[in-house]
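WP5 quarterly update. Target: Tubby C-terminal-like domain-containing protein. Source organism: Tagetes erecta. Length: 201 aa.
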Amino acid sequence: MAKVHPETILPIGTSSDKNPIVLTVWKKSLLFGCYGFTVYDSTGNLKFRVDNYSTSGSREIVLMDAFGRTLHTIRRKMLSMVDNFLVYNGEDAVDPRFTVTKHVNVLNSKSLAYVSTSKNWKKRNVRYEIEGSYAHKSCMVYDYTRRQCVADIRRKEAKGGVALGEDVFALVVQPSTDPAMAMTLVIALDQMFDHSRHSFR
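Structure tokens (predicted):
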């Protein structure tokens, strides 16, 4: 069986002295009978995990580190016209760190979602824009003002060109970006655009 954790992935637009963090995301929980994500670093060590105990109707998803400590809590915003997710630090449920809102303008088909620093999406509060296709695991996260790529999702192949399937892909995070934050964006995108049996709806 092909290894799931990264081997070698060429970085996009990075210098040799500031290489990005390359993570392998596996859409599979470590716990039997649960849906979730297991994330490995470039050496194959466990980095993050998501174990969703409810297979349907879940409003809350918890991103944990390798030891099971809560890093971020992602909650679906109710009574919203579009998919909208509030991301909190740890288990805090008072003030969200940021909001991920699905893009619905058909005139701009490249955009998937916006990340803002407010509960309510407004242009002036946007920090990041996500473009591409989550279904094809080809997404770029851009700093909204500088238009620099801070993270990207891409397909992954094992050595020898063996495809690992749609449930295994790479998350490449630039040095200036928090990998845990980038992983919360993956979770939000999965909720928005993956309607398979593995979604946490």
